[in-house]
Design goal:
Among the domains are: 220 residues, Rossmann fold (3-Layer(aba) Sandwich), CATH 3.40.50.150; 56 residues, no CATH class. It is 39% helix and 19% strand. The strands form 3 sheets. The chain has a 7-stranded mixed beta sheet with strand order 7-4-3-8-9-11-10, with helices on both faces. The protein is globular, with a radius of gyration of 24 Å. The chain binds S-adenosylmethionine.
Length: 409
């Protein structure tokens, strides 16, 4: 277990006495709400998976699969059941809420699960490549380094192993963080890797054992949200943002200015990530030049370069994705500004609101009749009764509705 007293001086008063989950500080402004939120996400994850497995088992029992496909699916079912059992043990602190609650983030239990395998199983070339970039810009005199959205902690651990600084890995995802905690505390982590379209039959689902790593006294994990960093302003010499600014909702410039508040006057951000941001909002879809410009606006000194990397090179797949990545070392912050999340106080006057409400009400009514594994015909019959549709109408709505649902799952 990490010794949290070694980093307690970095927390603001409000977060000094926070509870911890399995020894990792649970440093949220509203810790109980966050625990309920992640417990509901955990519950949904198990519910969803159990219903898929039940439906597959039903099909197997009905002899709907043959030959090698039958074998593959039987093995998948066995492995997935063992995997869920292991995950329940890992996530035991998050198994006490079945009530639906709204979430402030789109992240789920399984978001970025591949990172566990990338960081600790597939060979460390990607993480090593990232560390090679970073190490040239570390002076060796750093005291406190913050790693944002550290995920499975491969990079934060590598940095900690090679410096004397306290390296603090922050993330919100319990699944990634609890797996990382086991591995970085010298315990082996047994799991299963499931690969869609693998290169060989045996790789579709396979049992894996990830070796534990030597425990480091200067590597710390903290559950917290980037929007509400629990540390004192100006605490860090260096903040590492690796594949992070591109996935959070705020604009890049806002995120950098917010991060700068936690840097000391000589501090730096080491950025690694895609060389273009692919987001929904056109103003947030950034090219390489715009990413560099955003750093330039917020720092006195910056240098940048691009390099090629095998992104998430899953050894079970026959294809690799080569990405052009951008590395930026930005030092001496010249502007700072905390992200302040304004709560909405009024429902917007939007003419689409009423038709949206109507559509959602109908969807909810339909959804009540949907169970995993049922046939389109069964659903169609139920819609005929519920809405008084003709047979043809019911068929049409069933197909359209299910297409929409499947595209959103
Ligand atoms: C694309 S992954 C990158 C992980 C890691 N930096 C890497 O390069 O492997 C993004 C990470 O950010 C975390 N994350 C997402 N939103 C966050 C937030 N608001 N605060 C902290 N971490 C967050 C996710 O859980 C995930 O681990």
């Amino acid at each position: 277990m990490q010794d949290n007293s070694l980093i307690s001086h970095l927390f603001t008063e409000e977060y000094k006495e926070v509870k911890s989950i399995n020894g990792i500080p649970w440093a949220y402004k509203n810790p109980e709400e966050k625990l309920i939120e992640w417990s509901y996400k955990t519950f949904s994850f198990f519910e969803h998976n159990s219903s898929i497995l039940k439906s597959l088992q039903g099909k197997l029992n009905n002899n709907e699969f043959k030959g090698l496909t039958k074998q593959r699916i039987q093995k998948y079912l066995d492995d997935k059941n063992s995997y869920l059992k292991k995950s329940r043990k890992l996530l035991k602190d998050f198994l006490n809420n079945e009530q639906e609650v709204s979430s402030t983030s789109s992240q789920n239990i399984l978001s970025y699960e591949d990172l566990i395998f990338r960081d600790w199983l597939w060979g460390k070339s990607e993480v090593e490549q990232y560390y090679e970039k970073i190490q040239n810009d570390l002076t060796g005199r750093e005291k406190n380094i913050l790693v944002l959205g550290a995920g499975a902690c491969g990079l934060s651990y590598t940095i900690a192993k090679n410096t004397t600084a306290n390296v603090i890995a922050c993330d919100i995802n319990p699944h990634l963080f609890l797996a990382a905690q086991k591995i970085t505390n010298n315990k082996s982590f047994d799991s299963f890797e499931f690969t869609e379209s693998p290169k060989e039959l045996s790789l579709y689902s396979k049992k894996v054992s990830i070796d534990g790593q030597e425990k480091l006294n200067n590597h710390f994990q903290v559950f917290c949200d980037f929007n509400q960093i629990p540390f004192k302003l100006g605490s860090f010499d260096t903040v590492v943002s690796c594949w992070f600014y591109d996935i959070i909702p705020s604009s890049l410039e806002e995120s950098i200015l917010h991060t700068n508040s936690y840097l000391n006057d000589e501090g730096k951000i080491l950025f690694l990530g895609p060389s273009n941001f692919n987001k929904n909002q056109i103003s947030k879809q950034l090219t390489k030049e715009e990413i560099v410009e955003a750093f330039d606006l917020c720092f006195k000194s910056i240098k940048s370069d691009t390099f090629e990397s095998d992104y998430l090179a899953d050894t079970s797949k026959s294809q690799k994705r080569i990405e052009t990545l951008l590395y930026i070392c930005a030092s001496l912050p010249k502007n700072r500004k905390l992200l302040i999340y304004k709560e909405e106080t009024h429902i917007p006057l939007n003419p689409q609101l009423d038709s949206y409400k109507q559509k959602i009400t109908i969807f909810e009514k339909i959804l009540k009749h949907v169970t995993a594994g049922m046939s389109y015909e069964e659903l169609s019959k139920k819609l005929e009764v519920e809405f008084g549709f003709s047979k043809e109408e019911a068929k049409y709505y069933t197909k359209n509705f299910m297409n929409k649902i499947l595209s959103e799952l």
